[in-house]
Structure formats: C-alpha cells, structure tokens
UniProtKB/TrEMBL annotation:
Domain THIF-type NAD/FAD binding fold: 10-243
Transmembrane annotation, as ranges: 32-59
Organism of derivation: Pragia fontium
Claim: Transmembrane helix is one of the keywords in the record: yes
Keyword Transcription appears in the UniProt entry: no
One Pfam family named in its UniProt record: ThiF
Name of the protein this chain belongs to: Molybdopterin biosynthesis protein MoeB
InterPro entries: ThiF/MoeB/HesA, ThiF_NAD_FAD-bd, Ubiquitin-activating_enz
C-alpha cells in the first residue's frame, strides 16, 4: 500500500486515470536497470526516481570527466574524478530517499547480466558502446525483459522499444555489426538537449510500461532530427535468421 507521504509526493501522477494508485503501486514494486549514467542516463534516472520506481540499478564503470558536464545533468563540477554510479545514487537519494538504489560499477557483459536480469522488470540502455548494447540486448532477449534503448550524436537521436515476445526482432537484427561506429559523441560532438530529449522519452516509455500501460513504440525505431525538429518512425520486421532472437538483419519500413 501507498503511505500518506507517497500519496502526497506522487499526487499529480496519481490524478492520471492511466496510472492512479494501482499504477503507482506497480511502479513501487518494479525494478529497473539503467545501463550508463551519462547524457541519456541522467534524465532517465532523475525521472524514474521522481516517479517512484521502487528499485533502480545504476550501472556505470566510468568516472566523471570535465567534458561530461555539458550534458550529464546528474553531476556537478565538484564531483570530477568520482565514479558516476555512486554519484548518481547520492543525487537520486537526495531527490527521493524512499527508493532502493543499487550501484553496479563493473562493465556489463552477457555473463554478469545473467544474475542481474533475473530480478529486473525493464532495462534502459543508455550506454555509449556497441559491445555493451549487444550484451544487454542478448540478455534481455534471453530473459524476456523489456528493453528501452536510446542513443544520440550531434543533432540526431534514436529511440527503440522492444517488448517480449520480441515479435518485431531485436537490436542485433537492426544493427548486426558490433564494430564501434566512427561517428560518436567524441568524434562528432553532441548537443546537451539532444540526449536530454531522448533520455526523457526513454523514461516516459518506461513509466508507461511499468505502470501497466502499453507502449505505442513497441518494435518501432524512432529517429529524431534535432535541426529540423522532425521525427521519423520506422517499423522493424523480424528476419528468422538472427542468432540472438531468430531474426537477422531486421527490415525497416
């Protein structure tokens, strides 16, 4: 049950017919894994903590660098050279001390994701490298856990939602090549509000799904052009030859 403090804290959320007390209890009883606490993970973590998601696993093996502060809004200048996951926990506890935060400072692999995903209801992929993205995708497919994936570089953003039973394919279908792309934030730059926009929408979809609402984005790749302020929606189609989900090189159209 929700206590009086929770009813007051989440009162504006509880007024929504699609959430209400039942949806809020679902959030309270949920466990999410946030992979990466940078530009995407910062708004994701803040909004999920503010919304009352009961257990939040904070995964990042990196330390804070001065170049991060332009877009990673969880952190402050005095936090430089400290671990991002522990810093995130401190900030989120200050925002909402009623929740359970767990810090994961090892780089996630298919091996250590085995135990983690057995207790997780939803994963938010906010990381910045292909090896981790593919490991997270494979683990979500194996354990039938919903995946909300986001990315951004320069003025471009991507958002992808994959729900079990993954009838539309998976991340490996869409991006079978595990080679790190040459165009990334370090080489091409990124505008802070771009990762903020994509991360906020990742949080929106996560809150909807966890509270019992359907996601209209399931199996769709959303592409955002920040210069034109234009969204393009592409539907994934599963190809049955994928080594991860049974579909290789998912078609989009």
């Amino acid at each position: 049950m929700l206590n009086d403090g929770e009813f007051l804290r989440y009162s504006r959320q509880l007024l929504l017919e699609d959430i209400g007390p039942e949806g809020q209890m679902r959030l309270k009883q949920s466990t999410v894994l946030i992979v990466g606490l940078g530009g995407l993970g910062s708004p994701v973590a803040l909004y999920l903590a503010a919304a009352g998601v009961g257990t939040i696993l904070l995964a990042d093996d990196d330390t804070l660098h001065l170049t991060n502060l332009q877009r990673q809004i969880l952190f402050r200048t005095q936090d430089l050279r400290r671990g991002k996951a522990e810093l995130a926990k401190e900030q989120l506890q200050a925002l909402n001390p009623q929740l359970n935060y767990q810090v994961l400072t090892k780089r996630l692999t298919e091996d250590n994701l085995e135990d983690i995903l057995q207790q997780t209801d939803l994963v938010l992929d906010c990381c910045d490298n292909m090896a981790t993205r593919h490991a997270v995708n494979a683990a979500c497919i194996k354990h039938r856990v919903t995946l909300v994936s986001g990315s951004a570089v320069s003025f471009s953003g991507q958002l992808l939602v994959l729900n079990p039973p993954f009838t539309h394919g998976c991340y490996a279908c869409l991006y079978p090549d595990r080679t790190e792309p040459s165009r990334n934030c370090r080489t091409a730059g990124v505008l802070g509000p771009m990762v903020g926009a994509v991360g906020s929408l990742q949080a929106l979809e996560a809150i909807k799904i966890l509270s019992g609402m359907p996601s209209a984005l399931d199996g769709k790749l959303q592409l955002f052009d920040g210069k034109k302020h234009q969204w393009t929606s592409l539907q994934l189609r599963r190809d049955p030859a994928c080594a991860v989900c049974g579909g290789q090189h998912a078609n989009i159209g």
